[in-house]
Amino acid sequence: MTDIAWETALEFEDIRYEKAEGIAKITINRPEVRNAFRPQTVREMQRALEDARDDLAVGVIVLTGEGPDAFCSGGDQRVRGDAGYLADPDDPTRTPGGSSVGRFDVTDLHVQMRRCPKPIVAAVAGYAVGGGHVLHVLCDLTIAADNAKFGQVGPKVGSFDGGYGASVLTQLVGPKKAKEIWFLCRMYSAEEALQMGLVNAVVPLERLEEETVAWCREMLQRSPFALKLLKASFHAHEDGFAGIQQLAHDANLLFYGSEEAQEGRDAYREKRRPDFSKFPRRP
Ligand SMILES: CC(C)(COP(=O)(O)OP(=O)(O)OC[C@H]1O[C@@H](n2cnc3c(N)ncnc32)[C@H](O)[C@@H]1OP(=O)(O)O)[C@@H](O)C(=O)NCCC(=O)NCCSC(=O)CCC(=O)c1ccccc1C(=O)O
């Protein structure tokens, strides 16, 4: 039993989005398909993540799946088209945007999770499979229930994720193990996942939320800006120019708070030449 009072933050169809004590929780709520995501699910998750990012009261985000059977089983294979995913409820041959050419909606979600300045914690019960496994890999931390099972199934079902699904997995478990996971499509227990560095902790199923909330509360005690910069720093070299851009813009954010930067701004507003002579040329 968790001593936290979740309150609905925004209403959605495929997900639940709740908040409490500075924690935002996104729950994929499609247990009838083991929490597989369709394009609408992904768009709702994007909207919730955007809200959690912008809410100054939120410091940590939890991603989880409804029920004990699955965190997420990946893309909903019932709406998989010949070119991505097609899921306009009024016309299953079209995407929600109206095009009859499908798209991979999760690409943007992956980037959003990666760039989100707040830690994202996966709470995994049951299966984290396929595109669902990639979602937990992209979370900053993963707490697993003892019934969790992890695996990639792409080569079994005619799919693969050579993006973050391969590169970040390699960072976590090493290239040999990452290739084993993708090439053989085996399932791994929570204990095996812990041993290979794929998850941070394994707890009894009934304690999953309690433990996840405890980790979140601990992070909420830490400096939010330090956590934001740490996350960006961890990703900087892996994400190339995009990673450098994030760190550089964060540095500019800090620079804006300095007298030196303010002299430039004030001089422009006051229509005078800026005087930077009093500022040190730092070695
Ligand atoms: C997850 C299982 C191992 C769970 O097994 P089990 O507990 O025995 O339950 P089942 O009886 O199999 O399933 C119950 C029920 O759910 C339906 N279901 C389960 N998963 C899916 C799914 N992914 N899509 C649709 N429906 C699903 C299942 O059919 C049952 O329904 P019934 O009506 O009762 O028959 C097992 O269920 C399983 O193996 N599931 C399939 C896993 C899978 O193949 N996932 C897709 C992998 S490919 C993928 O995820 C896309 C990759 C991707 O996201 C991506 C990658 C790179 C770029 C872009 C993208 C992108 O946008 O998609």
Task: Write a concise synopsis of the structure shown.
The protein is of the alpha/beta class and 283 residues long. Helices cover 41% and strands 16% of the residues.
What does this structure look like?
There is one protein chain. The protein has 283 residues and is an alpha/beta fold. The protein folds into 2 domains: 7-221, Alpha-Beta Complex (2-enoyl-CoA Hydratase, Chain A, domain 1); 225-269, Lyase 2-enoyl-coa Hydratase, Chain  A, domain 2 (Orthogonal Bundle). 41% of the residues lie in helices and 16% in strands. The protein contains 11 helices and 11 strands. The chain has helices spanning 39-54, 106-115, 131-138, 154-157, 164-173, 175-184, 190-195, 208-220, 224-236, 240-255, 259-269; strands at 7-10, 15-20, 23-28, 60-65, 70-72, 120-124, 127-129, 141-145, 149-151, 188-189, 201-203. The chain has a 7-stranded mixed β-sheet, with helices on both faces. It has a 4-stranded mixed β-sheet with strand order 5-7-9-10. Helix 1 (39-54) links the parallel strand 3 and strand 4 (60-65). Helix 1 (39-54) runs parallel beside helix 2 (106-115) and helix 5 (164-173) packs across helix 6 (175-184). The longest helix is centred in the first third of the chain and has 16 residues, at 39-54. The radius of gyration is 21 Å and the shape is globular. The mean pLDDT is 93. The site of ligand LW2Y6JES has 25 residues, from helix 2, strand 7 and helix 4. Its EC number is 4.1.3.36. It is an enzyme of class 4 (lyase). InterPro entries: ClpP/crotonase-like_dom_sf, DHNA-CoA_synthase_MenB, Enoyl-CoA_hyd/isom_CS, Enoyl-CoA_hydra/iso, Enoyl-CoA_hydra_C. Belongs to the enoyl-CoA hydratase/isomerase family. MenB subfamily. This is 1,4-dihydroxy-2-naphthoyl-CoA synthase.
